[in-house]
């Protein structure tokens, strides 16, 4: 686990290595040309395509409302990560899963696909939270 300073350096390095910002600038636009964005951790830089919570010492009521509403959505995304780790315990075994020494990314993708298939069959907490029905397996894998 990283401390606050080490974690931010690690996150910034991962962000730079991923080329995510360049890809967002090139491809993250709606059909009518409006920029689309993702919501990230406060450690990430603010950009048109990368948003984060307000961090000022004095927040307006609107800023607090934005942070609160985005926090609940962000938490729901984290439920999915928790589901994957809960269903496939080996994916969280840090001693054996080392980037460069095992296929961590491929294993995670397979686990996510299988978890999504289970969601198609049985639903999940996130779908209930947002009031959606899951697609069928045929729709999901089409």
Can you describe this structure?
The protein is mainly alpha-helical and 142 residues long. Helices cover 56% and strands 3% of the residues. The chain contains 6 helices and 2 strands, in the order H-H-E-E-H-H-H-H. The protein has helices spanning 4-18, 20-27, 61-87, 104-122, 125-130, 137-141, and strands at 38-39, 50-51. The protein has a two-stranded parallel ribbon. The radius of gyration is 18 Å and the shape is globular.
Briefly say what this structure is:
This protein has 142 residues and is mainly α.
**Largest pleated sheet:** 2 strands, parallel
Backbone shape: globular
Give the CA-CA distance, first to last residue.
39 Å
How confident is the prediction overall: mean pLDDT? 82
**Which strand order spans the largest sheet, edge to edge or round the barrel?**
1-2
Portion in beta strands? under 5%
Number of strands: 2
Secondary-structure content class: mainly alpha
Q: How many DSSP H or I helices?
A: 6
Helix content: 55-70%
Order of helices and strands: HHEEHHHH
Low-confidence stretches: 1-9
User: What integer value in Å does the Rg equal?
Assistant: 18 Å
């Amino acid at each position: 686990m990283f401390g606050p300073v080490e974690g931010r350096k690690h996150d910034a390095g991962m962000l730079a290595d991923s080329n995510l910002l360049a890809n967002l600038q090139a491809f993250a636009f709606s059909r009518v040309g409006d920029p689309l964005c993702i919501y990230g951790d406060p450690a990430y830089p603010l950009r048109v395509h990368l948003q984060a919570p307000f961090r000022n010492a004095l927040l307006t009521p609107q800023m607090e409302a934005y942070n609160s509403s985005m926090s609940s959505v962000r938490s729901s995304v984290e439920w999915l990560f928790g589901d994957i780790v809960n269903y496939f315990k080996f994916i969280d075994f840090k001693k054996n899963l080392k980037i460069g020494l095992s296929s961590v990314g491929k294993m995670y993708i397979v686990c996510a696909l299988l978890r999504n298939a289970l969601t198609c069959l049985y639903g999940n907490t996130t779908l209930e939270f947002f009031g959606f029905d899951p697609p069928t397996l045929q729709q999901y894998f089409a």
